[in-house]
Amino acid sequence: MTAIALTIAGSDSGGGAGIQADLKAFSALRAYGASVITAITAQNTQAVTAVQEISTDVIAAQIDAVLSDLSVNAVKIGMLSSPEIISTVAKGLKGFDGPIVLDPVMVAKSGDALLKDEAVSALISELLPMATVLTPNLPEAAKLLDIDEAASSEDMQSQGQALLNLGPQAILMKGGHASGDVCSDFLISDGDTVELTAKRVDTKNTHGTGCTLSSSITAGLAKRLPLNAAVREAHTYLQQAILKADDLNIGSGHGPVHHFHQVWTE
Prior knowledge:
The protein has 266 residues and is of the alpha/beta class.
């Protein structure tokens, strides 16, 4: 059987994040990628200059078109900018019995907002309870909990537990925004916490890391890996994609990670 992963997210015209990053990561990890576009962004390595939301009717039609024909094994949810779009996606996925990876995309690497403030409560009430795993970075976790950002690994784990109480089956607290030579992520589920560490890479080319990690996990789940194994595979893949990011020369701002580092040659 072919592993099929579906991404529901926004389009990044610069190709480094969003739908484009998701499809690249799916392919790199041997999963067939389908997509539902929720918004079109005019975006490059420096800024997001325009955002056009897709109508909820078209979003619903895309979800129906994919799920009615393709045997989707896992779904990744990324940029959903409004309460109406969040509700549309939640309704469209009702009845889907595979794993769902929810990446609560709120701010682009450039600092531009991608989620309206009024949409946060809808995200919490409608989608968090549907998530197999939620993958927030430190600012996103703090926003969801309406508290200060975690300042230590203990804070990260505590906030992960608080997010777990909102309904997801597991939380992957990402430490990329923390400081120090080692980056720690924490996979937290009921009664279990797993720490994943990696040496922090000195590069500005980290555009799309959050999208890439969540879609990599989705690819693993589509291949029917257990969650812990899918997260470990994705963690290793992303670390190498960051290490090889400077091999690319894309734009003059925050360039993308190297999604195809395993197959491209000099």
